Amino acid sequence: MIVRVYNNAEEYLLDYESVLLENEAVSQLVLYNAYQCKNNPDLCDILFGVITDDDRVVLHFSNIPNSNMAVYVQDYGKDIREAAMVLAGYMADNQINFEGISAKYEVCEAFIDEYRKRVKCTFVQRLEADIMVITQVNEIKPAEGYTRLALSHEVKMLTDWMIQFQIEALAKEIDYESALVKTTRMIDDNRLYVFEDNNGTVVSMAAASRKLVHGIAINYVYTPEEYRGLGYAATNIYNISKKYLDKGYDFCTLFVDKKNMLSRRAYEKVGYHTVDDIYEYKLLQV
């Protein structure tokens, strides 16, 4: 197997954008990274590439600063474990820095096993999630209240929620200033939504975090513990999904923790279905 690398996102997209778009919801992390880098040509230390076998692409990967290396499987007919090991060897032998890996479990497992043979390190699992997609919403009995854009004066409360989301969903902490900057930016960009009950209390939030070519990725779905089990998050997701589908997007997508069966069932009632899964491991140098 051969590693083919690109230090230019535009060149990578010229060769592979059409292939990635064929399975956009599953390839979204690699694809989104490529668009971000294409639109910000001054970004340094970026790397895109493919692992090929007999001129057939097996894996795509992207590695950009402050993000996990994202891996997308194009060809399941080939040995994806071998391809992951080849990628691990390339990253180790060339001493390329990366934060961690986001990929299918088989890819993560093979990559980590091979990488640890070459570099003294450890990996910690942060996420195991299903990738869910919706193309048409089902009719549901919504919770009472309504979805609206978050307002600037709510930034401190929503920043606290953002931190709690990171701790609960991703098993990691984020410093307050970073969370405040992220939350402020999403409010300013009209990408953060809240659900307000009939008493005027904000009880849930979610963000349209990644704009794709044909779809929208929803993230940061969080409801404080005292408001859970009342259908607020599901209704918020229903309203946000319907809004973007009505605007002409082909699909909405989100990641849901594999252990969170209640959320998965709630999203399925809205109309979401699972198309693949993804695991995240953080790299810790020893």
Automatic annotation (TrEMBL):
The species this protein was found in: Herbinix hemicellulosilytica
InterPro entries tied to this protein: Acyl_CoA_acyltransferase, GNAT_dom
Highest taxon in the source lineage: Bacteria
Molecular function as annotated in GO: acyltransferase activity, transferring groups other than amino-acyl groups
N-acetyltransferase domain span: 153-286
Protein name: N-acetyltransferase domain-containing protein
Pfam families reported for this sequence: Acetyltransf_1 (PF00583)
SUPFAM superfamilies: Acyl-CoA N-acyltransferases (Nat)
